[in-house]
Amino acid sequence: QVQLVESGGGLVQAGGSLRLSCAASGRTFSSLAMGWFRQAPGKEREFVAVITKTGDNTYYTHSVKGRFTISRDNAKNMVYLQMDSLKPEDTAVYYCAADPVHLVHPDYWGQGTQVTVSS
Description:
Structural class: mainly beta
Number of helices: 0
Number of strands: 11
Order of helices and strands: EEEEEEEEEEE
Distance between the termini: 40 Å
Radius of gyration: 13 Å
Shape: globular
C-alpha cells in the first residue's frame, strides 16, 4: 500500500506561481512512476504530468508544457509540481498519483489539493 499526501495548493493571481508537493510512504519510492492529475469543477479528471521512476523522463499534457515542471527527490520520497505563469483555466483540484508500472490507470491517489487562479 502507498500513501500520498499533497500540499502547496492555494489561491494565486493569474501569472503567478505555486509549487505542489507530494509525500509518499509505504513502498520503495524509486519503484513508482509518479504524476499529477487535476479535476476542474464539472469536468473529468485529466492527466497533467508524469515522471519516470528514475526521474530521467517527464511528460506533460499540451496545455501545461513550458509552464509546469515535474520533479522528484527519491532520497526524500517526494514529488513536486512547479507551476508558473498560471492561468484561470488551471483552477482545479490537483491529485498526486503513483503506480509501479505506469500512470494510465494509477493504483494510488492522494486526497487532492485545491489550486485556484484568479483573473
